[in-house]
Design goal:
Oligomer: single chain
Order of helices and strands: EE
Strand order of the largest sheet: 1-2
Distance between the termini: 21 Å
Number of strands: 2
Radius of gyration: 52 Å
Number of helices: 0
Length: 126
């Protein structure tokens, strides 16, 4: 009769497991802004006085607009900050503990029977 003695050995491997997700998005926030801007407007004023000889004068005033400033709004983007998104790997050592089984052969005899037993360093005869 033959018996096999067995021992457990470790086969260690790693598996990549999804532990979470990162969602990155930009939010546009609008803001109403009221700005007071000084503008310049020009007019030409022409006054005409007519004397009719009796020292009474008649004055006519004519106003002619020449130019005025108009407000022009131009928007342009300005960089506030740079955002870098990188996926970095960190290597570390982790210790694991497990229990391994190993079979040992023990021979126990009773009586006067004689047998031959080849003893190895892992087996014992009491």
């Amino acid at each position: 009769m033959k018996r096999q003695l067995r021992e457990e050995k470790l086969d260690i491997c790693t598996n990549k497991v999804k532990t979470g997700e990162v969602h990155i998005y930009k939010e546009v926030i609008t803001e109403e802004k009221t700005v007071t801007v000084p503008v310049v407007r020009e007019e030409i004023v022409i006054e005409k006085q007519v004397f009719d000889g009796k020292e009474q004068s008649q004055a006519d005033t004519i106003r002619i607009p020449i130019s005025e400033e108009h407000i022009e709004i131009t928007k342009h983007p300005v960089i506030l900050e740079n955002v870098s998104i990188d996926n970095k790997q960190f290597h570390e050592m982790k210790q694991i503990e497990t229990t391994l089984k190993k079979e040992k052969l023990h021979v126990k005899t009773t009586g006067d029977d004689k047998f031959i037993h080849n003893q190895t360093e892992d087996t014992q005869t009491p």
